[in-house]
Amino acid sequence: MCKLTRRKFLGLGGTVLAATSVAGVAPFAIGGARKTVVVVGGGIGGATAAKYLRMMDPSIDVTLIEANTNYYTCFMSNEVLAGERSMESIRFGYSGLKGHGIHVVQDRATSIDPDKRVVRTQGGQRFAYDRCIVSPGVDFRWDSIEGYDARVAERIPHAWKAGPQTLILRNQLRAMRDGGTVLIAPPANPYRCPPAPYDRVSQIAHYLKRHKPRSKIIILDPKDRFSKFDLFLDGWKRYYGYGTDDSMITWVSGAAGGTIESLDVKAMTIQADIESFKGDVINIIPPQKAGWIAFSAGLTNEQGWCPVDFRTFESTIQRKIHVIGDSSQASPMPKGGYVANTTAKVCAAAIVADFNGGKAPRPSWINSCYSTLAPGDAISAVTIYTYRDGRIVKVEGSGGLTPQEFDAGMRAREAQYAHSWFNNITADVFD
Ligand SMILES: Cc1cc2nc3c(=O)[nH]c(=O)nc-3n(C[C@H](O)[C@H](O)[C@H](O)COP(=O)(O)OP(=O)(O)OC[C@H]3O[C@@H](n4cnc5c(N)ncnc54)[C@H](O)[C@@H]3O)c2cc1C
């Protein structure tokens, strides 16, 4: 367990201060009633916020309400699909957070009353709060693809929330005959982790090349470009014959008729804009929206996401409730785990400042995102953002993208960095 002293907190140059500037803030409670924060959702955003609240101010009473006993990270779940890592390696429990003095409640939050400031759960529990932090991740717009819903997803997995869904897709890939076709249908923007569908294509292609080399992947995409586009295409050319008659991967863009309309589970076909495609394994990643509880608490706008004040991540619709992670609308930052992690720290620092009569620090955020083309060949994009005039803006000249020219040594290092990023962020969130 890691408890920060006031001196250590103010002296931190690394993780916390990378995300939040705390100048002028006395972060520890100076007497007064004990403050209570209830966090809904123990994924990347919620778990980080709960831990950092306690680290920044151990006098705060923090309750974390999480529906599941264990959390499976979406990051690296594509490696599970490729048979490159185990499910156990992406599973995290909550004992580390309990060690920080957080009350971890395994239950589903069913309502948040912004007037009475109370969260209620399926198990009949009731938690009063001074501040509530909501980080429920994403839910799916089931009505957008005819024939696809939560029940059908048990057979045609989305695997866009890791756990049982990851296993369904992995087992289907294992059971598929050599020479079979995998259909992958990513959504239009915005959605959770923009490069991840294409990382998934690469990982599955790698698996098929090794185990079922006569198989094909067809991507049915409503978009005409995607994150790290040129780097992915270059990797697919090098490893999977992309662009040749014998390519393992075919990408059907929006302009070429890639937008999907309906699914026929019995026939295992997807009807897209222009033609119909038959698959042996089908992975539909449906369009997304904020997690259900955000809707029921009245935190969402017409686009289905939660508008927030970027300095504090407090909802601009309901006071004293903060929304972080994928459910929040924090454009131009993408919906991603690293963003959820850094927004959680910004939010925690703002709440601690407020409880102690201070002003929310001026925030900045980091996003770095790795994708794999084949084992030992990874690419990355890094961006630093800052707060200016009520908006989130990219810091000019910051960050960068892996160079287009292939350099085997650099790509191997990127692959190592990707795995150490995973180890670091999961320790930062759950230990
Ligand atoms: C295949 C894939 C690969 C990815 N790779 C990367 C990557 O390499 N890097 C990166 O930065 N990001 C990556 N991401 C994105 C990242 O996983 C998400 O952006 C991140 O998990 C968002 O955090 P969150 O807290 O908003 O939601 P989540 O981490 O999904 O957490 C939400 C939690 O809330 C709980 N919950 C929901 N509703 C309730 C309720 N009513 N009551 C109680 N609990 C509730 C859920 O059980 C869940 O545990 C990837 C995503 C996918 C799908």
Provide a brief overview of the structure.
The chain is an alpha/beta fold.
Could you describe the 3D structure shown?
- This protein is α/β, with parallel strands linked by helices and 431 residues long.
- It has 2 domains: 36-140 and 288-359, FAD/NAD(P)-binding domain (3-Layer(bba) Sandwich); 152-284, FAD/NAD(P)-binding domain (3-Layer(bba) Sandwich), CATH 3.50.50.60.
- The chain is built from 11 helices and 26 strands.
- The strands form 8 sheets. It has a 5-stranded parallel beta sheet, covered by helices on one side. A 4-stranded parallel beta sheet has the order 13-12-11-17, covered by helices on one side. Strands 23, 24, 25 and 26 form a 4-stranded antiparallel beta sheet that branches.
- The longest helix has 23 residues, at 408-430.
- The N and C termini lie close together (8 Å).
- The structure holds flavin-adenine dinucleotide (FAD).
- The site of flavin-adenine dinucleotide has 36 residues, from helix 3, strand 2, helix 4, helix 10 and strand 23.
Helix run count: 11
- Tell me, rounded to a whole number, the average pLDDT: 93
Supply the number of structural domains: 2
Rounded to the nearest angstrom, the radius of gyration is 22 Å
Largest sheet: 5 strands, parallel
Give the helix proportion (percent range).
Answer: 25-40%
Can you tell me the CATH superfamily of the largest domain? FAD/NAD(P)-binding domain
Shape: globular
What structural class is derived from the secondary structure elements?
alpha/beta
Termini Cα gap: 8 Å
Strand order of the largest sheet: 5-2-1-9-21
Model regions low in confidence, pLDDT < 50 over at least 5 residues = 1-31
Listed once per kind, the bound small molecules are: flavin-adenine dinucleotide
